[in-house]
Design a protein that fits this description.
The structure holds two protein chains of two kinds.
Chain A: E1 3-7, E2 10-13, E3 19-26, E4 32-38, E5 44-52, E6 55-58, E7 65-70, E8 73-78, E9 87-94, E10 106-107, E11 111-115
Parallel strand pairs in A: 2-11
Antiparallel strand pairs in A: 1-3, 3-8, 4-5, 4-9, 5-6, 7-8, 9-10, 9-11
Chain B: E1 9-13, E2 18-23, E3 31-38, E4 45-50, E5 55-56, E6 61-64, E7 70-75, E8 84-92, E9 108-113
Parallel strand pairs in B: 1-9
Antiparallel strand pairs in B: 2-7, 3-4, 3-8, 5-6, 6-7, 8-9
Classes of the chains: A mainly beta, B mainly beta.
């Protein structure tokens, strides 16, 4: 069966520090991968999506970047964190058989990021 | 993608069926209905999805009206662990300029009581 792992589960970082969040998927090949952010009391906002190695698309311009160095690895990064980057970051995957088919997205347990 | 309307909250007694309504009156012919739930401090969990036929899996049943303007998620025997926010989402399948993103609304806070 397929599983998705995110780490760390929680992170406290000072303003201006760098960030690296990692997500890996097991049990499937060539998945579509997504990074979402959920601000406190609000809905999910899609940040990035990827249909293959090295292929990244951004939903909104921001202080963050994403990379996909391997088929089942998705990394969210920042060179300098802002206070507004605080939130709950979620990685998700879906079957890549047909790009954005009706197959559902499956989420990891998320990383809760606090910026001080 | 079409928008959905859900009641903000509902209570359900443990062991009873929970029926969660969702209105999606502007749904298009190629849009699927998805249900997710989010337990506090966890990532959203996929429950079920469908296009026009009723669907059932080990977690729940999805009943879609014939005109597809509304649907109901049924949890057959609610347990305390089913307490969560439930989201009804409609999304078009296939390649779109929305990159397959899921747009979560406010959802329904379901509280299962003993």
């Amino acid at each position: 069966s397929q599983t998705i792992h995110q780490w760390p589960a929680t992170l406290v970082q000072p303003v201006g520090s760098p960030l690296s969040l990692e997500c890996t998927v097991e049990g499937t090949s060539n998945p579509n991968l997504y990074w979402y952010r959920q601000a406190a009391g609000r809905g999910l906002q899609l940040l990035f999506y990827s249909v293959g190695i090295g292929q990244i698309s951004s939903e909104v311009p921001q202080n963050l970047s994403a990379s996909r160095p391997q088929d089942r690895q998705f990394i969210l990064s920042s060179k300098k964190l802002l206070l507004s980057d605080s939130g709950f970051y979620l990685c998700a995957w879906s079957s890549g058989t047909n790009t954005f088919s009706n197959q559902p997205q499956h989420f990891g347990d998320g990383t809760r990021l606090s910026i001080l | 993608d079409a928008k959905t309307t859900q009641p903000p909250s509902m209570d359900c007694a443990e062991g009873r069926a929970a029926n969660l309504p969702c209105n999606h009156s502007t749904i298009s012919g190629n849009e699927y209905v998805y249900w997710y739930r989010q337990i506090h401090s966890q990532g959203p969990q996929y429950i079920i999805h469908g296009l026009k036929n009723n669907e059932t899996n080990e977690m729940a049943s999805l009943i879609i009206t014939e005109d597809r303007k509304s649907s109901t998620l049924i949890l057959p025997h609610a347990t305390l662990r089913d307490t969560a926010v439930y989201y009804c989402i409609v999304r078009v399948a296939g390649v779109t300029d929305s990159w397959g993103k899921l747009q979560f609304g406010a959802g329904t806070q379901v509280v299962v009581t003993p």
